[in-house]
Amino acid sequence: MAVIILPDAQEDLLSLQEYMLDKRGEIEWLKAEDEIFANCNRSMPRSTQALL
Fold it and tell me: Which of 12, 19, 40, 50 is most buried, judged by most C-beta within 10 A?
């Protein structure tokens, strides 16, 4: 899956990541990330999933 991050959003996303790691820890962060991408894959057509 390709994700495009606009230059203006990059700093905000890094700040959010730092905040989340401080509040939740790396294990919870990775679990949430896995759940997000699993949900994305389920909503994609199978032809798109095959490209990933």
Answer: 40
Q: Is-contact 41 49, C-beta < 8 A?
A: yes
Q: Which residues, 6 or more positions from 17, have their beta carbon under 8 angstroms from its beta carbon?
A: 29
SS3 label, residue 25: coil
Q: What is the pLDDT along the chain (52 residues), one digit of tens a residue?
A: 577 778 788 888 888 888 888 888 888 878 888 887 777 666 655 555 455 5
Where in 1-52 does DSSP place strands (E)? Answer: none
Q: Are 52 and 1 in contact (CB under 8 A)?
A: yes
In one-letter notation, the amino acid at residue 46 is R
